[in-house]
Design brief:
Blueprint lengths: L10 H4 L6 H11 L5 H4 L3 H5 L1 H4 L11 E3 L5 E2 L16 E10 L2 E9 L8 E8 L8 E2 L16 E10 L2 E11 L2 H6 L10 E10 L6 E5 L3 H4 L3 E2 L18 E5 L1 E2 L5 E5 L6 E4 L11 E10 L4 E10 L2 E10 L8 E4 L9 E3 L2 E6 L9 E7 L8
Antiparallel strand pairs: 1-22, 2-22, 3-4, 4-5, 5-6, 7-8, 8-9, 9-10, 11-13, 12-14, 14-15, 16-17, 17-18, 18-19, 20-21, 21-22
Length: about 375
């Protein structure tokens, strides 16, 4: 396997636009006028509420969910701007949440405008052992911001896992694509426009200080777009070895071919094509695998974002942990939690900010609901 850090040896061949203060300022200016009616109208319970699952959902599904207002996170004020470009945020979404030693840790994407480029990653904590405690935003925020040419257009969608006694933060680094790079790494099966995306990695021993390790896959494979970094995770946020190794389900990019990554240490990854998902029973087009949930009963559940007749939808696919690429079933409904799910007080839990009112930087926490009667 190739160490993540050594993948930077191919960066010269990408002929990337350099990250400079002027370039960052231009990205911010573009982000502030971003509009996308389709993604801007995303509503969580459309995918995750009882109606999305239906009355006859099978007993292996995770969910449905309902909001828990007591756990809502609200960001007040603006972070300091280390780059000095006037960066501000108006929307929070696509977070990853894990519990450690009685504290909830929330890593979230903060954007100038909802679903815009120019994002940064923040961190907040909630002490579950102190009744009535409130979320505390990390004074060091942003904990991850663009510092590499591969991140010029933003750092997005954190995914946090515990493994090997450490914490691993995978995120998307977004960058512009030059014509030279497009010629060097053509992607006929997955057309890539002006924007490229890489799976980036950072590691920490304390969830506070992060060492950036760079991209985890070479452009010869990703063809300038790789998004996901979905690793099977248990109810405690621990990455789970399946078949003696860590797996990563990648569903966007790689020239339009589903890939699985394999690793023995979470740092170095080797990727190969694996056709692990079949949506033919519901039709439509796959957008992204959002999460991989090991439920503790021998089941692996993939939470999937797709569309049906042009309308966004969520489904869950069932696998046996001993055969993680052989799909056993597919059913409607899902969390679409890009950062994974954990059990908090015995209930599957995740956070998302899609339903925040315009201009309100809020993340709502969703808990597993009782829901309708399950099918056998």
């Amino acid at each position: 396997m190739t160490p993540a850090s050594s993948n930077t040896s191919t960066d010269a061949a990408r002929r990337l636009e350099p990250l400079t203060p002027d370039a960052l300022r231009a990205v911010l200016d573009d982000a502030l006028v971003h509009e996308n009616e389709q993604t801007g109208a995303l509503a969580q319970l459309t995918f995750s509420g009882p109606a999305a699952y239906g009355p006859d959902r099978p007993d292996w599904t995770v969910g449905p969910f309902e909001p828990d207002p007591a756990l809502t996170f609200t960001l007040e004020g603006q972070w300091s701007d280390p780059d000095g470009i006037g960066w501000t945020s108006s929307s929070l979404y696509n977070p990853s949440m894990v519990e450690h030693d009685g504290t909830l840790h929330l890593f979230y994407r903060a954007s100038p405008v909802k679903e815009s480029l120019g994002s940064r990653i923040g961190h907040a904590t909630l002490d579950l052992t102190a009744p009535g405690a409130s979320w505390v935003d990390d004074p060091a925020n942003p904990v991850v911001r663009p510092t590499d040419d591969l991140e010029l257009l933003g750092t997005e969608d954190p995914k946090v896992y515990r493994a090997e006694g450490r914490w691993w933060l995978f995120y998307n680094g977004v960058h512009p694509i030059t014509e030279e790079a497009r010629a060097a790494f053509p992607s006929t099966g997955y057309p890539v426009g002006a924007v490229g995306c890489e799976m980036m990695l950072a590691v920490s021993d304390d969830l506070v200080t992060w060492q950036r390790l760079g991209p985890i896959a070479p452009p010869e494979q990703t063809r300038l777009w790789a998004k996901g970094a979905v690793v099977p995770r248990d109810e405690h946020g621990e990455a789970v070895r399946l078949g003696g190794e860590y797996l990563m389900f990648v569903s966007e990019g790689f020239d339009g071919v589903l890939h699985v990554g394999r690793s023995d240490d979470m740092r170095t990854w080797a990727f190969e094509p694996v056709d692990y998902l079949d949506l033919s029973s519901v039709g439509g087009h796959l957008h992204e695998v959002a999460a991989a949930i090991v439920t503790g009963d021998g089941h692996l559940v993939l939470d999937v974002f797709h569309d049906v007749d042009g309308r966004f939808a969520a489904s869950q696919a069932l696998y046996d942990v001993a055969r993680p690429f052989e799909q056993l079933a597919l059913t409607p409904g899902g969390s679409l939690s890009w950062g994974g799910l954990s059990r908090v007080d015995g209930r599957w839990t995740f956070a998302q900010g899609w339903d925040a009112p315009p201009g309100r930087r809020e993340l709502f926490v969703y808990r597993e609901a009782a829901g309708p009667t399950r099918a056998s």
